[in-house]
Amino acid sequence: MAVTKLWSVTERLGQVIDYATNPEKTSANIKREFSPEQYQALADVIAYAKDEEKTEREFYVEGINCNVAIAREQFITVKEQYQKTEGIQAYHGYLSFKETDISPEMAQKIGMEFANEVWGKRFQVVVTTHLNTKHLHCHFVINSISFVDGKHLWGEEKAWFKFRKVADRICEKYGLYYDPNPNRSKQSDYLTMKEKAGMPTRYSVAKEAIDYAIDHSKTLKEFQFALKEMGYAYNLSPSRKYWTVIPKGYDKPIRLKNLGADYTNDRIVERIKENRDRWAEIEPFQRATYKPRQYRMQTRGQKLKKKGGLYGLYLYYCYRLGYLPKYKKQNNARLHYLLKDDLMKLDKITDEVRLLGRENISTDEQLFSYKTSLEEQMKNLIAGRTHLRKKRRTNIDDGQLQAAKDEIASINGELKKLRREVKLCEDIAERSKVMEENLEHIETEEQKQQRKEKSRYEQRW
């Protein structure tokens, strides 16, 4: 059994889920004094959980401390009774079964038993079983306010990751699969597939940086200095069970022990100590890059750098990444540490540089002007879509209705493209500043290294 997270419902689900089209369950024929828009999120999520196409005409739909047919009204009654109608309206979660041969009756029974144990003493819950996927799964819609004392759902009552023990116990009771020792630190399938395909991930880049830092360090202090110089934040406290690092541009730390057996706390210390026996062979942290030449021809990078503007900045950055020109031989091992993380963002960088070239954008003013024009187009399209949606509710024939739906679908497609363009503009505005900082830092280091090598060369002669 796989248990997912519990999430809150505060507004229309809109783009998150398609709510059901059952007019008997979602229409506003309710004899209460509140606007149709009020509690719409509550209606949407309950309608989604009770979707007839997924529950075989609501056969697998039950309520705990409420009547499913009028669950929305009963939820609202509790909220109004305790004068807590604002904020989170409900919580929505689900329980998915690994087995493919489990019966819907059994799935619904387990879902009811689970919900009763976790929430049944204090909250109203709608429990349904969806049959529309390969693996059956139960949906839960829980009122955010307790009918017992009017308190909000909080603490361990919504700590979904703690419910695993309850789910495991019920699975064991009915002879279903459960993992008694789940590995919660393993990488996602997406990252594993990228690594197998030879593509960089934040884990592989971090591993490479740590290997480089260890190979050029004889003490733990030197190791920390190397990590800091490469833009990594770290927590290598001796009292900490698992050492962590945070790559530049990320917020979530990486536990080093998750990178492999050679990256545990003790093993890293051992690898650094092993370097002391061969300290004479260890190269300096910054490799020599200066080579004296009598004549220096202008390189492609220098030409791109002179182009200037946002477009020129992106072209020069791609050149430093080793992906411009196409025939340039890539050597990621010698790539500056500040640039390695951007190898994972090449698709986004490519889209951004194409936009800049296509629209001939060179300055921040041109970028924001283009973004404003996109937002204006979106505003007009949304207004047209709203008009069409209102038109669908009028008495029109089937042909006109289908034409309106087709036009709405076309508008949605255009809006999707425009939103993507707006997001690219926002990313360019943010990324360009980071690029400038990285290039400035790299060039400063290169100039220092060149002066140092030049001094050594002059001393020899």
UniProtKB/TrEMBL annotation:
InterPro entries listed in its UniProt record: Endonuclease_MobA/VirD2 (IPR005094)
Domain MobA/VirD2-like nuclease residues, every copy: 48-176
Region described as Disordered: spans on this chain: 436-461
UniProt superkingdom: Bacteria
Name of the protein this chain belongs to: Relaxase/mobilization nuclease domain-containing protein
Species this chain originates from: Blautia liquoris
